[in-house]
Amino acid sequence: GALTEVHLDSLDLDLACAEAIATLLRAPGLRVLTLSGNKLNEAAMQRIGRGLHNHPSLQVLALSDQKGGANSTFAIKELLDAMETVPTLTKLRLGTIHDEALRRRYLSLENTHVSDMKTRGKKEVVDAAAGGAADSIAVPTGADDAGRASGSNQQQPGSSSEEASAAGKRQGSPTKASAAPRVDLWGDEAARIANSQETSLGRPNNEDDSLPWRDPATNYVLTGCSEWRSATKAERRMVIEAF
């Protein structure tokens, strides 16, 4: 698709989503991916590192504050090995790096990449990344927009489900059997992402968002979406795979 920025922070993503994230990282036009505050462990970081290798244009990757032991020495080494193959990557957010040798290596890679980007005449990209683009993403509530999106998909009076319910009661069937079918909220969202259509839940702009306006055609922000809490693991993986 045309997306260049995807923000999936604090969504409880874990190892089950790691392969889908690695696939997302292979999108050549992706420039910013933030995954802070999830549950990605060492094994997940290995898969993400493999997906990151030789990316042609990624500038910011945020992976800090994981709840699954992702800050292990081995995981960080894997990610730094991958960073070395991506000269455009000027910010790899890993949180605290306790190993002194790895910390020096990270700083050396970051400085080298920033210097190379400036040399190649991409100062505006460097300035955006050096300003902490990954850390400056505000957490939108998403409640109003998600609520409106959810509400727009509900059955209306006089719909076929109501008629089916009435028919069920006339036949003496249990009320439960005539309940309206569950709205496929995340299946629909995944289809919109896959078809590069306007999304309903990944809103890059919110009324209380102090950040500059972001183009919905190129930015996807799911952080703070209240509907995500009820998504199953399969639905979460399906959404990420849709990118």
Structural account:
Residues 194-203 have a biased composition (Polar residues). Residues 137-215 are annotated as: Disordered. InterPro entries: LRR_dom_sf (IPR032675). Residues 150-167 have a biased composition (Low complexity). The protein is α/β, with parallel strands linked by helices and 243 residues long. The chain has one domain (5-151, 179-241): Ribonuclease Inhibitor (Leucine-rich repeat, LRR (right-handed beta-alpha superhelix)). The protein has nine helices and five strands; from the N terminus they run βαβαβαβαααααβα. The chain has helices spanning 18-24, 42-52, 73-83, 100-119, 123-130, 143-151, 160-170, 185-194, 233-241, and strands at residues 5-7, 32-34, 60-62, 91-93, 219-221. A five-stranded parallel beta sheet has the order 4-3-2-1-5, with no helix packed on it. β2, α2 (42-52) and β3 (60-62) form a beta-alpha-beta unit. α1 (18-24) packs parallel to α2 and α8 runs parallel beside α9.
- What is the CATH superfamily classification? Ribonuclease Inhibitor
Biggest sheet features: 5 strands, parallel
* Share of helical residues: 25-40%
Number of DSSP-assigned strands: 5
Biased composition (Low complexity): 150-167
Region (Disordered): 137-215
Biased composition (Polar residues): 194-203
